[in-house]
Amino acid sequence: MKRIAFLGPEGTVSQESARYFFAEGTYEFVPYALMSDVFAATADGTADYGVVPIENTIEGSVKHHIDLLVDSESLPIQGEWVYPSIQNLIGVKSDASVAERIAGLRKVVSKDVAIAQCHDFLRSRLPQAEFDYVSSTAEGVRIVKEAGDASIAAIGTRMSAELYGLDLLAENITDHDNNYTRFIVIGRERLSMRPPEQHKTTILVTLPEDYPGALHQVLSAFAWRRINLSKIESRPTKKKLGNYYFYIDIEMSLDSVLLPSALQEIEAIGCQVRTLGSYPYFSYSNRPNN
Ligand SMILES: O=C(O)C(=O)C[C@]1(C(=O)O)C=C[C@@H](O)C=C1
């Protein structure tokens, strides 16, 4: 049985999303307290694959997770998919009306990303509440359950409310309907799944220091071959102030004829290129079947 590591405890958006992606076959879903634990377990073979939220419609790239990916040399990206983040306001069980219970809330506990996704709701409906930032949405739900305190609520999935026996005080409270998260799966082995419709390749490019216009040259190596880039993001190398590398998503497989020659051209001008993975990509309407 393949073991899938995800950010726990049970009931996170990551777990819902992992169950959606790894729908068929026998998998064991194993929760880890921190994303760095997910990477470590996948690296040392305790888990076969790790599930990583990498980008959100509202919050953009999850920079910390990109940095973990860059630091884990041995773990290529093996797949990518999109999953909706549906957040709910969750509180302890009570006989009072929902309006009274919401009015009585003094604190909201959740993951930073989830709080940001519900900003307008929280400002308009809970202006009195302060926020506590915790390691995941389900961790917030667990804390509310443990505290048994009607003045604290969590923001999390319907699944987590059911798991911890709590009430949904308000459903689907994200500010935008199209609130999706892009997830990647890391691991040593390729995934066996039906042939995908789309492929992506992710690379890291470090520019040479003494080559003016190098970034323009990099982009033109893709442009004249009509290779589409779906994302380019700079991240500090953490070695020297002002030194950056570029994290680039390319909408093409490394097996295609064009891409290797584009990468060779970039290396020829003195750039360092590292491939983080070449993998199947599934949009939300195109559910994987593995
Ligand atoms: O806290 C969770 O439930 C997670 O799975 C993590 C995470 C994230 O950090 O991006 C994943 C997707 C949601 O948009 C919010 C939170």
UniProtKB/TrEMBL annotation:
Gene Ontology CC terms: cytoplasm
UniProt xrefs under InterPro entries: ACT-like_dom_sf (IPR045865), ACT_dom (IPR002912), Chor_mutase/pphenate_deHydtase (IPR008242), Preph_deHydtase (IPR001086), Preph_deHydtase_CS (IPR018528)
Site residues, Essential for prephenate dehydratase activity: T181
Signal peptide as annotated in the record: none
EC number, UniProt record: 4.2.1.51
Segments forming domain ACT: 203-280
Key word GTP-binding present: no
Superkingdom per UniProt: Bacteria
Pathway: Amino-acid biosynthesis; L-phenylalanine biosynthesis; phenylpyruvate from prephenate: step 1/1
Residues in Prephenate dehydratase domain copies: 3-188
Key words, A-Z: Amino-acid biosynthesis, Aromatic amino acid biosynthesis, Lyase, Phenylalanine biosynthesis
GO terms, molecular function: prephenate dehydratase activity
GO biological process, one term: L-phenylalanine biosynthetic process
Reaction(s) the record says it catalyses: prephenate + H(+) = 3-phenylpyruvate + CO2 + H2O
Protein name: Prephenate dehydratase
Source organism (scientific name): Paenibacillus hemerocallicola
GN (gene name): pheA
